[in-house]
TrEMBL record:
Binding site residues for ADP: R21, A22, V23, V24, R25, R154, G185, A186, E187, R211, K213, K214, H215
Gene Ontology molecular function: 6-phosphofructokinase activity; AMP binding; ATP binding; fructose-6-phosphate binding; identical protein binding; metal ion binding; monosaccharide binding
Annotated SUPFAM superfamilies: Phosphofructokinase
Subunit structure: Homotetramer.
Gene expressing this chain: pfkA
Coiled-coil residue windows: none
Protein name per its UniProtKB record: ATP-dependent 6-phosphofructokinase
GO cellular component: 6-phosphofructokinase complex
One biological process term in Gene Ontology: fructose 6-phosphate metabolic process
Alphabetized PROSITE patterns for the sequence: PHOSPHOFRUCTOKINASE (PS00433)
EC number: 2.7.1.11
Pathway membership, UniProt: Carbohydrate degradation; glycolysis; D-glyceraldehyde 3-phosphate and glycerone phosphate from D-glucose: step 3/4
Residue intervals of the Phosphofructokinase domain: 3-275
Residues that bind Mg(2+): D103
Amino acid sequence: MKRIAVLTSGGDAPGMNAAVRAVVRKGLYEGMEVYGINYGYAGLVAGDIRKLTRRDVGDKISRGGTFLYSARYPEFASEEGQLKGIEQLEKFGIEGLVVIGGDGSYRGGLALTKHGFPTIGLPGTIDNDIPGTDFCIGFDTAINTVLDSVDKIRDTATSHVRTFIVEVMGRNAGDIALWTGVAGGAEQIIIPEKEFNMAEVADTIQKGRERGKKHSIIILAEGVMSGNDFAKELAEFGDHHARVTVLGHVQRGGSPTARDRVLASIFGAKAVDLLKEGKGGLGLGMIGNKIAENNFEEILNNQKHLPDLSLYKLNQEISY
């Protein structure tokens, strides 16, 4: 394989640029030509494709977001869209593709592989919800961004003796809430994977106040409900002086942490190795600090992501 391409798709995540850099530098090291596709699958179908050099990825490892840009393109779910994409790849003489993104990106990669075009997927999403890997590119940076905000919120919560509900991202997964809840010393963590009782939440806040606690921090995963809806329901069980902070898209930005840069670099280089061997239809992951390869079909249809619920139990034991 002499000519490969790389694209980023779906929501951006810190470390995507580091992954693209690794694909380009490793590809060039192996004597390949490497092309970048702008705006994900939309750019693929449109032929927005350019050759990348070492200089193009210089100084990109420390930058958040994705310099290849990203876009939603549901039309790629159709066979017509997929064949148009392959037509563009063949036009440029590209023989293999690296896709960096979440499950939607993987579905596109699976479709291309079924059409006989080798594609390798790298898990890039702050939600950390891709099966077959302990950690996705961007997750570590996101939780450190959230943690910095939680530490600041605690200061004002204590000053005014308030309950703060911090709504974090994660789509339908509770990973961001779990990790930042434990790391931030939150009194409550509310995630989609565990049922909760609002009366018990209110009771815990009240008992803390009776013991002299000056604040309560509740980390709420967006997959449960919005922060404002949670505050309304909590108010039915008394006035807890609750305030809501929705961190929003700030969680997606920022310079990637060392962990995300290294993870992205490992994944990017391994993807090139697999394409060089003529392999495709695989999503990469990291399990127990060892790189893992999983079939797209297995990831999308047979496996299910589950957060580390031992963290939920741990927080219940040490947050009292």
